[in-house]
Amino acid sequence: MFCLLRYCFQVPSKMMYLQRLPQPGWSKAVCSAVPFDNILGVLPKSQLFRHSSASITKAQSFHSSCCNLKKKKPPEPEPRQLDLLRYDMPSLKDSSKPALYLGFAGLIPFVSIPLLMAIQEVSYPELVFAQIAYGACVVSFLGGIRWGFALPEGSPAKPDWINLANSVVPSLFAWLALLFKDDPIQAGMTVIIGLGIALHYDLALLPTYPRWFKALRAILTIVAACSLIATLCIVNAYPEKRLSRYASESEVSK
What's the CATH code, domain 85-253? Predict the structure, then answer.
């Protein structure tokens, strides 16, 4: 029994120090003079059981607190770059008022032309070409924005070969679309592809713009592309009619 009690008192040095505290009826001189090993023989058995259980309880609480400190919460995943609806769309309210108003005003030529032709149920080649030419200008403008974004000092987009060369690609698509002026289907599809490539560059590939501008760019590009698709559907569905008086007179003379 004495050996078992002696084994229970084999605790760390800090716990052993707690056992050296003076007990009721013990003087400080006795506690300092008597060695710790001899205290076991002096204390009654009831006090030995009480001190041993208290030491084990303190040791267990000390051990459990160390385990709690080691537990760490798993790190939260970083937001994805292309999760536009969740991370970028709420930032649209923080956009610059001139950029917001001018951006939506720039959709008027895109939306008005297919709307006019759908109401009259006729396809005007002059208006179709005007919309395609305006879309080509917008595609070239989107490429020029990248140059202006990369040239200032301290910009996250550096004026390197990748940024400046990719900003030229939309202008090439705009030039290619104007070459197909006699074929509105190919010209319109070329402009739509140029808009998509410019949006992909701005959102994912190259160093991106502020969040509010990315949200604005996505909305404007989607509306412009849908307007061009509506125009191409009207060209295939409705009969063609010329706007110019000279063209109509020449057709009548024939």
Answer: 1.20.140
Per-residue pLDDT of the chain (254 residues; tens, 9 = 90+): 444 444 444 544 444 444 444 444 444 444 444 444 444 444 454 554 455 555 545 444 444 444 545 556 655 545 444 455 566 677 788 888 999 999 999 999 999 999 999 999 999 999 999 999 999 999 999 988 888 888 888 888 888 888 888 889 999 999 999 999 889 999 999 999 999 999 988 888 777 788 888 889 999 999 999 999 999 999 999 998 888 754 555 454 55
Token pair, residue 237, equals 């569905």
Ranges of each domain in the chain: 2-66, 85-253
Three-state secondary structure of the chain:
CHHHHHHHCCCCHHHHHHHCCCCCCCCHHHHHHCCHHHHHHHCCHHHHHHHHHHHHHHHHHHHHHHHHHHCCCCCCCCCCCCCHHHHCHHHHHHCCHHHHHHHHHCCHHHHHHHHHHHHHCCECHHHHHHHHHHHHHHHHHHHHHHHHHHCCCCCCCCCCHHHHHHHHHHHHHHHHHHHCCCCHHHHHHHHHHHHHHHHHHHHHHCCCCCHHHHHHHHHHHHHHHHHHHHHHHHHHHCCECCCCHHHHHHHHHC
Whether the Cβ atoms of residue 95 and residue 213 lie closer than 8 Å to each other: yes
CA distance 211 to 169: 23
Instruction: Residue 233: name the closest of 200, 195, 192 by CA.
Output: 192
